[in-house]
Amino acid sequence: MNLTELTIDPLRDLLLQGKTSAVEVAKAHFEHIERRDKEVRAYLHLCPERALQQAAKIDRQLAAGEHLGPLAGIPVAVKDVILTGGARNTCASKILANYVAPYDAPAVERLEAAGAVILGKTNCDEFAMGSSTENSGFFVTHNPHDLTRVPGGSSGGSAAAVAANMAVASLGSDTGGSIRQPAAFCGIVGMMGTYGRVSRYGLVAFASSLDHIGPFGRSVRDVARLLQTIAGRDPHDSTSADVPVEDYVAGLDQNVRGLKVGVPGEYFKGLSPETGDNIQKGIELLAKLGCQVVPISLPHTDYAIACYYIICTAEASSNLARYDGVRYGFRSADPVDLQAMYKQTRYGGFGAEVKRRIMLGTYVLSSGYYDAYYLKAQKVRTLITRDFLEAFDEVDIILTPTSPFPAFKLGERMDDPWQMYLADIYTVTASLAGIPGICVPCGKTKQDPHLPVGMQLLAKHFDEARLLRVADAFEKAGGFEVA
Amino acid sequence: MALEEKDVRYVAELAHLELTPEEVMKFLPQLDSILQHMQKLNELDTSQVEPMAQVTYPAAANPSLRADLPLKTFDQDVALANAPDPTAGYFRVPRVIEKEE
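Output (structure tokens, whole complex):
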């Protein structure tokens, strides 16, 4: 039995039966990381001291017969844009290379309170800006299924760590697909809840009207458990929703007969043929389970990438104004005056994609262009949201591919930024509308090297329970290995 | 190409970014191309559409408001712990105002 290959429930059973200990589980993961992460490079830094301390605490509770939290002893990785107090938080940016987080994000605090063991912080695109993790200011993460390919992004490290058994589950952040797309590329489950479902306090801001924290796991059940743990109102985040959190885990294991699944034609144009084949098989499987498959239309889909990249860069240019070398982070050496300090600090601290997005965002907000770009995009955002709300009058769930293609080669899309942005074409829509989405594995491509394909399911605001129920039914019916 | 070199320099200046001449020339065609793709939105008539600044949903009345109570926040030493140049409880920066001769 390999302790690093299990999902949460079997691991918990072993702990409760006394067949292993939380310390043993944590050490098994660190040993595996030591070997495997030399080639995958998912982690930016590990926190063995904190992890082993927490694991020892779980073992003491276990020995004393105390009640154990739902995630007791479960090793979890955290994307390096989500603060863990006392540890470095770099956002994969040189500008924050030595930044030490002053507090725990509530998402992290809630995981640890439920017994989870935080192993370390994972690599990502700098400030979560990218779709391949190649924009990290430190190094590139490799896809565990094929080391010559990207793990997706921006939460590529969190996805690769779970896919390569270097954590049982992980946290990522999703602004335009940064959880769902790497989940697809790495063949695991990744979920973004409704906007406001999970507190973003302690998540370093990229685009505040779009940012989410969400979980990765190797099963739908594990993702349901993590989401349930981290969801709910937090007074530190005024955008966190005061809406009761359902018992997602209790809602699993039910049949999905009679549910209406909408399939929007717009998401099947320009799809790589093998991705299309797998998604078709996924649709057929849900039909076999008794779902009613309904063709639908989301007519403004084609405008989503332009709309998203105007809004997210505008918000990013504002959020990233705080990196000026005054209060934290890197400061350029010996500037002649304050203005020079700002400019040189930002010149030396930010990578190319971050600079590009700050400039785009500054441009679309600047005098003379605000109405033509930013205001226009906000109006189109209304239309994209309306498409979804109207569709959900007819159907319960919407099914799409997560990405038009499987994991691409390292370096393949780095020369043309727009080509990279197109990797998010099926995920940005839900982000703009604020609805929840989950990505589940939907088989692998026929041809060598047999890359994972991801299927995306979307639901209306705060309908996470139904989304998880359908994803769980799909998994139990063999959907993950459908092709 | 609609965007010009001076536009890139102007935007970089607004954003407090220093760019080398090579970077300006690298970013110019990239930004221009992205902005042209973004103009696709002009195909849509949005004259009767309200802008959406934030995701809203039916929820408790104004959940963003809480009681106005003083709460504990970071101590000064914690707030200064990451500062590049902390001095006597302050963030020190290069001189802003010139001394009179």
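The mean pLDDT of chain A is 97.
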